[in-house]
Amino acid sequence: MAAQIKPYLAALLQKKLREEGRGLNDYRKIEVEINPLASSAGSARVKIGSTEVLVGVKLDVGEPFPDTPNEGVLIGNAELVPMASPDFEPGPPKPESIEIARVIDRGIRESHAIDMQKMVIKEGEKVWMVNFDVYPINHDGNLLDAGALGAIIALMNARFPKYDEKAGRVKYTELTKEKLPMTEIPIMTTFGKLSGTIFVDPTKREGDVMDTRLSITTLESEKASSMQKGGFGTFTKDDVLQMFDLAVEKGKELRKLLKQATSKA
Predict the structure, then answer these.
(1) Cα separation of the two ends of the chain
(2) Radius of gyration of the chain measured on its C-alpha atoms
């Protein structure tokens, strides 16, 4: 099947066309829902075209990492459940789920989106631990951007649970009005390359046959906090510069969308 689809999609892309009628630099329609999960400290549902993910945030108290005793902890996870795609199988985490979690986590962590020094309860002993979990509901390509967008929305809207310091117990069901100390809104943009043509937001059909992939997380300062390549193909220096400029542009567009959605929540 892939051998038949690849030349067809490559021919479309060379004409600057996509199967859905969008341009090379266009995302599919993006929809966001803030805090759909009542049991989470913060959550988000994101749809990019037919791709849909849920992201939940849990705040807990634990020990800091030995090399960062004066900072809180951020941990990302992704679980690819069979209901989202026939390609996903039950069982231990597969390399794809580990990669998705690490790439999203790195983009947020390296952006310093959360002021982790403000997450310390007692230096070297107790800190707030921020856990976010990405759960695809339907996989039609580009889980990286959908998951990253969902993660940052969930984090922006998460609230601390009450913490009984004397008892050393977190009351998960009792949320305060205090939100995470966010300092940045990192946005990930993923590009595919097929037969020399670069495009934004690969669908599953495009992702299955594309030669290579690059995900770039950009900041409001128009700098990058992370880049992650996938696939066996190559990018030229000019390719990377072109994608970076476009990632900055898309970052501005998606940041505006997030701020509008948050103001209505």
Answers:
(1) 43
(2) 19
CB 72 within 8 A of CB 122: no
pLDDT digits (tens, 9 = 90+) for 220-249: 999 999 999 999 999 999 999 999 999 999
Judge contact between 47 and 150, C-beta under 8 A: no
Burial class (CB in 10 A: 0-12, 13-18, 19+), 262: middle
Q: Is the pTM of this model over 0.90?
A: yes
- What is the CATH class of 2-264? alpha beta
Task: List the domain boundaries for the chain.
Answer: 2-264
Amino acid found at 257: L
Please answer whether residues 61 and 121 qualify as being in contact, where contact means their C-beta atoms are separated by less than 8 angstroms: yes
β-pairing, 197-200 with 169-179?
unpaired
Hey, which bits of the chain come out as E strands? 30-34, 42-48, 51-62, 73-78, 120-122, 126-138, 159-164, 169-179, 187-194, 197-200, 212-218, 224-231
Task: Read off the DSSP letter of residue 77.
Answer: E
Looking up tokens 């090399």 gives: 67
Q: Which residues have a Cβ under 8 Å from the Cβ of 208 and sit 6 or more positions away?
A: 2, 5
